[in-house]
Specification:
The strands form five sheets. Strands 1-2-3-4-17-9-19-6-5 form a nine-stranded mixed β-sheet. A three-stranded antiparallel β-sheet has the order 16-10-18. It has a three-stranded antiparallel β-sheet with strand order 12-11-15. The chain has seven helices and 19 strands. The protein has about 280 residues and is of the alpha+beta class.
Length: about 280
């Protein structure tokens, strides 16, 4: 265990992420909030256990420690009165789902189909299955550092074509054709494959799946095969951390330098209920 300022921390895995010990989000003072934001920018992910943020405003206050909360493209599962809070759940009310069930399964970075993808994702668990349903994070800076200098040089030149339309029309769970209005609000965008972190200058192998339609200047299937190879490389066990949820956990990760995926659980036996928020980001470079 290490102590950084007033905050007690321990690494989630060597060189990546920290768990902040004995931290009460609701009663954090200004100095502690500042330290928390600094830790986030340095380590790629933060875990805080045993939080009691059952009042939605508590979760909003936590989000505001890091920046301005972002809107959601899909709004049917946002919390009434709190449009920035998105519900993740397999529960139903009167036979109707109250939250998104399969969101987040598959390696990706959130909101990458926008000119300014979200900086940060945060999830607060109120109800968790006793087995399955883990969240896995991949350290894309470590993956970049593991590339040979020759490979880095070649990849530095590549640009990914991200498309919300492509994602929605090809996703495994619930393919959907966009309305003209939604399509107009979410035009295709282009982002570098190698991304520089604006806070610490580190470079990341900024791959993703789902939203990526191809690599600019490279025909498919060659482009998608290269992308698949890079995702497989970046998500090796040596670069990943698997989080096993407990009720009261808050975990927040940096979309500028990580990939993440959820994992399935037996939804015939167990339930999940969680809040998700996004924090506004900036244009990748």
């Amino acid at each position: 265990m290490s102590i950084q300022g007033q905050l007690k921390t321990r690494e989630l895995k060597p060189g990546f992420g920290v768990e902040v010990m004995d931290f009460d989000v609701r009663n954090a003072n200004a100095d502690a909030k500042k330290q928390l934001a600094q830790l986030f920018n340095l380590h790629g992910a933060l875990l805080l256990r045993n939080q009691k943020l059952d009042e939605p405003q508590d979760m909003m206050n936590f989000a505001n420690m890091f920046g301005e909360p972002e809107d959601h493209t899909q709004t049917q599962f946002t919390l009434p009165g709190y449009p920035k809070i998105y519900l993740l759940s397999n529960r139903k009310k009167n036979g109707v789902p109250i939250g998104a069930h399969f969101d987040g399964v598959g390696w990706h970075t959130d909101y990458s189909y926008k000119e300014e993808p979200v900086k940060q994702t945060m999830v607060y668990s109120l109800e968790v299955p006793p087995e399955g349903g883990d969240t896995i994070l991949a350290d894309l800076c470590a993956a970049y550092n593991a590339l040979s200098p020759e490979r880095r040089e070649k990849l530095e030149k590549l640009v990914l074509h991200h498309s919300y339309k492509h994602f929605m029309e090809t996703r495994e769970h619930g393919r959907k054709k966009l309305s003209p209005e939604v399509e107009a609000d979410n035009p295709d965008v282009f982002h570098p494959l190698i991304r520089t972190h604006p806070e610490n200058g580190r470079k990341a192998l900024w791959v993703s799946t789902g939203t990526v339609k191809g690599i600019v200047g490279m025909p498919n299937p060659e482009g998608l095969e290269l992308l698949e190879e890079l995702v497989e490389f970046a998500t090796q066990e040596q670069f990943t951390f698997r989080h096993k949820w407990q009720a009261g956990d808050v975990i927040t990760w940096d979309n500028r330098c990580t990939l993440h995926t959820g994992s399935l659980f037996d939804d015939t036996k167990y339930f999940r209920y969680a809040y998700r928020l996004w924090i506004k980001g900036d244009k990748p470079y």
